[in-house]
Amino acid sequence: MFSLLLLFPLLLSTHANLTGGGFGEKYQWVEWKEAKTLAAAQDKPIMLLLHKTWCGACKRLKPIVANSADLLSLSEQFIMVNAEDDEEPSADASFTLDGGYIPRVIFLDSSGKIRPEFANKARPDKYRYFYSSAQELVVSMNEVLENQGSSEGEGTESGKMEL
User: Fold this and answer.
1) Do the beta carbons of residue 80 and residue 35 sit within 8 Å?
2) Separation between Cα atoms, residue 158 and residue 7, nearest integer Å
3) Using one digit for the tens of pLDDT, what is the confidence trace for 106-131?
């Protein structure tokens, strides 16, 4: 019985990732520990969504992401990571970028390198990786796809979604 109690939190965190944790069951969410390997194998960028179960702003973002057909369509060209609570790569300070606020969406290239230039263009303040609308995320996702394979901002326009 005691061992079952110890496993319960682990089962809950895995369940949240498999079901989308409210961010949409139709997305192909993967765990952070698998993301870099999959991104390299499939030559896809990574979209890392960092959030907490207790966060009010995170709760408001959930139906926005879950109900967006545009985001769902674009997500097929990304390795999608839904990192809830302790699932995030919290030991690595490079993921704080402009702060440890949540929710944050961080984009990485297919080699796993953080691409800080892909941020929310609607937010020139210090919370550049905070998104509050599907359209804001679509703009950033399109920008990532346009510049895929380039660290200097030169890329292709494969898969771009019109607004």
Assistant:
1) no
2) 43
3) 999 999 999 999 999 998 888 999 99
